[in-house]
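I have a small job for you when you get a moment. Can you supply me with one protein entry, sequence and fold together? It will help me judge whether the discrete encoding reads sensibly. Write everything out right here, beneath this request:
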Amino acid sequence: MKNDQKIIYPIFSKVVYTSNTKTENKEIINILEETKIKKFKKVPPASSMSEDVHVLDSNNLKSLKKMLELEIKHYVNGFLKYKNKFKITTSWFTRTGKNGFSNYHNHSNSMFSGCFYIKADSETDKISFVNHSLPTWVLDPEEKNIYNGEKMEFGVYPGFLIMFPSEVFHKILPNINNKERLSLAFNIIPTGNIGYSDSSLNLIKCK
């Protein structure tokens, strides 16, 4: 490295993957309309989710699942360079009406999680991530960025896909307009052999 070079290395970072899939969502919306929904919370504004948490196992969503599996390969094999194959475990629809929201949460029993947006307002709809690690110093930066910020927001739109480590806390920001926001969330685990020596384990095989 030359003496005059100044380089930032975001070591041990949480790698978030986004993609504009340009997927046609009309058929997916029709399927979602026939899906039974339940509230996250017993309060009117809260977002709702499908009772079925394996919606991608439906024959009607085979093409969507195939697209997501290809994006997963880009993320975990292409960028993160893991050798293992990965499998979608759970998947569910989410509906968020006017003023709908969710609190910060993460996903257990999963390595990576994702959210695919079926219907969203690109002008206002966002997903928010927060770092819940306790900082040793609390300072006020002149400008917040990915190196010093404790929160990160992504604008979403139809066909937008985002994937991230499941331990990262995230939430659905309030829907401030009259248009319903529709999305599909899912969890991912590795399959095959993981670990080594006395911590080795063989997980379920991909179909």
Notes: DSSP finds two helices and twelve strands in the chain. The CA atoms of residues 145 and 198 lie 41 Å apart.
